[in-house]
Amino acid sequence: MIEKDKQYIWHPFTQAFNAVDPLPIVRAEGIWLYEEGEKKYMDVNSSWWTINHGHGNPYLIKKISEQFSKIDHVIFAGVTHPIAVEAAERVVNYLPEQFSKVFFSDNGSTSVEVGLKMIYQYWYNKGESKKRFLAIEGAYHGDTFGAMSVGQRGFFNEPFEHLFFDVDFIPFPTDDNWQDVINQTRALFETKEFAGFIFEPLIQGAAGMRIYKAEWLDALIALAKEFDVLTIADEVMTGFYRTGTMFAINQIQQEPDIICLSKGITGGILPIGFTVATEAIFDAFLSEQTSKALLHGHSFTGNPMACAAICASLDLFEQGDSLKGVEMLTKSHLKFIEKYKDHPKIKDVKSIGTILSIEVEIGAETTYFAGIRQEAFAFFLENDLFLRPLGNIIFINPPYCITAEELEYTYDKIIEFLTERVR
Ligand SMILES: *Cc1c(COP(=O)(O)O)cnc(C)c1O
């Protein structure tokens, strides 16, 4: 399998020249990934932060197969179907009141592209020339061009930088700088050139699971409202209880105009993106002129199987077991922090809901390229854990079906690594 993989496959985020062999995974069930032979690994990063009820959930399988035998796939322009309507209605009903219309796409990046296009065209349709975007340093919103434009510039996207549109970045807010960040934002918005502001609410994922305070985000959104700047909450990673509440924005007071959802929306098992907008944004596209419509779409818009997975995943949350897992993870992480916050190899440790993020003391600045990343990954694999650090940030965001014992084991191995392997 590895030989054929090398012959035919180009892997994501991978320098094939010197990459170690990929793990040959042949089965996934619950929290476990099974390799060919005896070896198995606990999927404590939920397969790129997607899986939330666990792998191979029998209820999800049943509901998806039932849908498969009704409608496998159908065009979504000029057509609708029951499961797309149900998925949209149920997600909208879980969202704060201002959200009313769902636009479907295929993944997190496309849900962001759609949000950006909605905002640019909103102002265009209104005849206003607002063209700048605001984002936060370290942001990750996906790998398509618009999403890259509003993301952290540098190593990952340098070859394309000349193609990106105009974006200003404010520093990531911290206890020390947040007043400056607010002042800087006000000064930028006073130029009246800003169309929109995009952010990952309460926690930046790819930047290293960096958590920031709800009150700072509230202050930033309030400023955007004051200057008529539309806001996008990118909840691709945070949605569906990752931060303890169904959405991270349930923990703020202000009301964003657009929310992007993907990853966990299907229980993490099928690709789909939701961009949900307010009625006011939707209304700005209504006109006698077809050109004022959002002329955007994807072949797999509203895919019935993905929609069935969304509804089944919501059923599972409503039945309660997964929420017990969310609560257990939330409480256990807080206890872990209490117990280990003064560990000599822990520079900082924070949690939000089900995500625990540990900044490892490496005697140098925190970076994605910290050598400790490879060493930690190998150590955890030896100990049956599939745990991929982001540089010197060791974090876990497990499926909600993890047991208290499995979680304790994971904590123990993290502490063992910190104590015995970090110099
Ligand atoms: C993963 C992620 C994306 C991109 O989603 P893809 O499905 O990988 O394209 C966008 N925004 C955030 C916050 C993410 O974590």
Describe how the helices and strands are arranged.
Blueprint: H1 2-8, E1 25-29, E2 32-35, E3 40-42, H2 46-49, H3 58-70, H4 82-94, E4 99-105, H5 108-125, E5 132-136, H6 145-149, E6 167-170, H7 178-189, E7 194-199, E8 203-204, E9 210-211, H8 214-226, E10 230-234, E11 258-261, E12 273-278, H9 279-283, H10 304-319, H11 321-340, E13 346-352, E14 355-360, H12 372-382, E15 393-396, H13 404-421
Parallel strand pairs: 5-6, 5-7, 7-10, 10-11
Antiparallel strand pairs: 1-2, 2-3, 4-12, 8-9, 11-12, 13-14, 14-15
Work out the count of structural domains.
Answer: 2
Unreliable sequence segments: none
Strand order of the largest sheet: 4-12-11-10-7-5-6
- Rg (CA only): 22 Å
Give the class from helix and strand content and strand pairing: alpha/beta
End-to-end C-alpha gap: 37 Å
Number of strands: 15
- Distinct small molecules: pyridoxal-5'-phosphate
What is the helix/strand order?
Answer: HEEEHHHEHEHEHEEEHEEEHHHEEHEH
Can you say what the CATH homologous superfamily of the largest domain is?
Type I PLP-dependent aspartate aminotransferase-like (Major domain)
Major beta sheet, specifics?
7 strands, mixed
CATH architecture of the largest domain: 3-Layer(aba) Sandwich
